[in-house]
Amino acid sequence: MNQRIVAGLLIFLLLMSTTAAIVELSVGTVAADSSGDYTYTMINGGTGVEITGYTGPAGVVTIPGTLNNSPVTSIGENAFYHWATITSIIIPNTVTNIADSAFSICTGLKSVSIPNSVTKMGDDVFYYCSSLTSVTYPDSVTSIGNYTFYHCTSLTSVTLGNAVTSIGTGAFYGCNALTSINIPKSVTIIGNGAFFDCHSLVSISIPGAVTIGDGLFQSCTALTTVTIGDSLTSIGTYMFYNTALTSFVIPASVTSIGDNAFYDCVQLTSMVVPDKVTFIGNGSFSYCVNMTSITLGKAVNSIGNYEFSHCYALTSITFTGKVAPVYVGSEWFYYTPENITGYAYSDSNFNTTAGAAFNELPMVAIAGSAGGSGSSGSSNDNTMSLIGIIAVVAIVLLVLLFLFMKKKKKKVQPNFPPAVQPIAAVPVANQVPPAIPEAPVRPQGPQLCPSCGYPAGTATFCMKCGNKLR
After folding, report:
1. Residue 426: its pLDDT value, please?
2. Domains plus CATH for the chain?
3. What share of the chain is helix, strand, coil (3-state, %, to 5)?
4. Is 0.85 surpassed by the pTM of this model?
5. Residue 387: which residues within 8 A CB-CB, separation 6 or more?
6. 259 Cβ neighbours under 8 A, 6+ residues apart
7. Burial class (CB in 10 A: 0-12, 13-18, 19+), 92
8. Who has greater pLDDT, 32 or 331?
9. How far apart are CA 210 and CA 231, in angstroms?
10. Residue 27 above 50 pLDDT?
11. What is the percent of the chain with per-residue pLDDT over 90, rounded to a whole number?
């Protein structure tokens, strides 16, 4: 009897769960409709249409503004995925959203028109559209998604709207034909490897207050000029790895340089690390084979392993700080010239005596003050110090003169003795009259210099003409 009851309960529960799953599936799934060359679903409570697929002819595709008497507001995920024969797409101004991978691997797509109505675009939108040559983003779009133009190898021109605030990871990865791009001031975030492997990119300017990911320009082998605004705080790992930079001004706001940041920048000949940088990662300047000199800012506290390894032309490393770095990694100047020399100011805590070395780097003292800007800065410091000493001496002399003149004008009061207390009555015969105080001694006038007549006081030399008095 008990077994029948248990079996019945199990069958009942199975039926209930199956029914619930069927109800949930029927409620959550919206069946796709079709109209002409498109499949679509109704969205936003039936007030809009999202295109989910295309079955039409090749060539130019003009997406309709309405389907089923409702506006087309979204192009869904993978809607035109892998349509290799489409050459051009015109999007209506009713569309506000373009979902992930909407046009991925449309290898024949050469142009696309994005209207001002679009406000959101997902990731991988034009992923591997290898024939796409140009794209213009309207001011209504605020972000470029991850891998949006991944391996768009024919892309030569991209215009970003002034509302774009972020560029995603790998956004332009492998865009080998792209030679330049204008980054608007509105951009605040650029993801990892956004321009990775853009072999034709020659120059780029990033003007705004921006946070930059790792490997941003890695393997951009033609990149010679990069300008970045003064708000950047970190040079990311592999940021300029294997680029053609001939020079680069690290923004003064930067505090750290990541591992291998300038690795294999064979065109760099010199570098100045600004004063706020405290950390330089492993191998940041390795294989900069033509670099001859580098100047490290006064705050550098940590230098990584193999920092300048295989810098075959490097002969000068200058430390501008008062305090030597606390940490220096192993083999930090491995495979550099035998005559490589470190330089530090004489008032720093570096040992710069003859034959001294800092972590095996031979050291030499340089003129000037630690933290300064070289000999011209030292000269200015000395001049300012001399002016300060003269000013202090002048103030002291003026104070002494003021006190002396005040003393000269002050009237000398006689030094009267304390009032005499009344004497108790005693016999006249025994009465002794009180002692009469002596007259006060009149002070003598100040001694005058026999040469110029200037009051000399107790000084040894005349303060006016310098004549010896005593």
Report:
1. 40
2. 30-132 (3.80.10.10)
3. 15, 20, 65
4. no
5. none
6. 237, 238, 281, 282, 283, 284, 304
7. middle
8. 331
9. 7
10. no
11. 70
